[in-house]
Amino acid sequence: MRSALHALLVLLFTLVLVGQAPAQTRLEASWPTNVGPLNPHLYTPNQMFAQAMVFEPLVRYQADGTIAPWLADSWEISEDGRTYAFTLRDDVRFSNGEPFDADAVVVNFDAVLANHERHAWLGLTHQIEDVQAIDARHVILTLKDPYYPTLQDLALPRPFRFIAPSQLIDGTSADGIRAPIGTGAWQLEQSRLGEFDLFSKNPIYWGEAPGFDEINVKVIVDPNTRAIALQTGEIDLVYGAKGLISPDTFARLADDERFETALSEPMETLMLAINSQRGATRELAVRQAINHAVNKAQMVESVFYGTQHPAETLFAPSVPYADVGLEPYAFDPTRAEALLTESGWELENGLRMRDGEPLRVDLVFVGNDAVSKSLAEIVQADLAAVGIQARMIGEEESSVYARQRDGRFGMIFNRTWGAPFDPHAFISSMRAPAHADYQAQLGLEDKPEIDALIDDILVTTDERERQALYKRLLTRLHESAVYLPLTYTTVLAVADPAIGPINFSAMTSEIPFERFTPEAAR
Questions:
Q1: For a disulfide at 161, which of 55, 71, 300, 386, Cβ 3.0-4.6 Å?
Q2: From residue 181, how far is each of 29, 71, 245 by CA, in Å?
Q3: Where are the beta strands (DSSP E) in 70-203?
Q4: Is 229 within 8 Å of 218 (Cβ atoms)?
Q5: Helix ranges (DSSP H) in 385-423
Q6: pLDDT of 14-59, one tens digit each?
Q7: pTM for this structure?
């Protein structure tokens, strides 16, 4: 009898404890694809926002443009700008318990540099001469030249982030990893292809613990389906700069009291790269006419519902070194027509002709992106008004990327990358053949000089000289009209108020999940 009573009391006590245990809190989000294998050192199909959840940098970029300590709590730079001495935090472990120390830093740097060709777009990978562990907490990074954006490159979402050394395969990550084990606030718990990726908070995270216990990222390909999921309560948050929700839906939800909506400051530039080595756009006058012919204000109002801003230059003047006094190509169809006529392109039955050849340009976009299609249709109509025929080519995203790499386009949608990539990392990538910018510029007679100018910018230590070099570069690119800037883009966010106020990350490639808090915890 006494034994039975004791067992009953234990059972009741256990039930009380279980009843008092806090329920797991989960934020439901959405993304068009699975997050991928989450290799911190590689690119597509790895999604940057998820890489940033799991893997951390030595230093972190802040919204005010400064660089803050992160896994490194301090650093010193030599007078010649070639040596960086980092002191690491002493309280960090990977989520599997492995220590984060100087040896882990060196192993990760070695893995990135062993795959150097894959990272050729990033200037720092060309500059690193040596990475040495002095002791458990001290690392010396030695460069070939005084590369000024070293700290900015180290703050990027990839490739210089850190995975537990045990998860590398034979010391490398080029062909994959064992598991995505990082030091970040989140760890990947489960993935189901085409359905979801579930993250839980890292129980041994060295920093402030996130407000939610779990983040479940549902795979929803279609923006309209995603909006319905938000309205029915299936998901709590839509956050992003690139087509996660249509601008008209955002405008409608902004008037719905059930949701909190927010727009970031402009963060990137959406533009068309214009090919200077292919077809009619080899001519400067044709590229200039295209720049004058397109009505960007109409785009902002009719496609983006005022959520973006018309762009006048490749980089917004607010971007470091980019406020150089460039004169915008004003919307001026009359000027566009005059440029074409002066170049021998005569208007015949609504189409410009010269020597029996029509003025046609291929306009490439992602076919299943409704916003890109709408923008392409506006460009097509505006160019038709001055006698240029734009042939719309809508393809799958992978095919569009292939065209960017090999130059099979007349015009192709592209965008800058936002802080802290812009401007230095973006101009660095202009020297890499796999990028649309390289292909667009390849027909310019002074392309080798442009690349050499970029080289000089990245290793110039004098601030005034660097600003002067940037002015030369940005002026040359602007005058060559190899870009048609369209809009300065923003991040759109819609949330259930129950997850807390909306905050924006300093980078468009990150989603600040750790800054959302369940209503019960506030």
A1: 55
A2: 22, 15, 31
A3: 72-77, 83-88, 128-135, 138-143, 168-169, 172-177, 186-192, 196-201
A4: yes
A5: 397-406
A6: 444 344 455 789 999 999 999 999 999 999 899 999 999 999 999 9
A7: 0.89
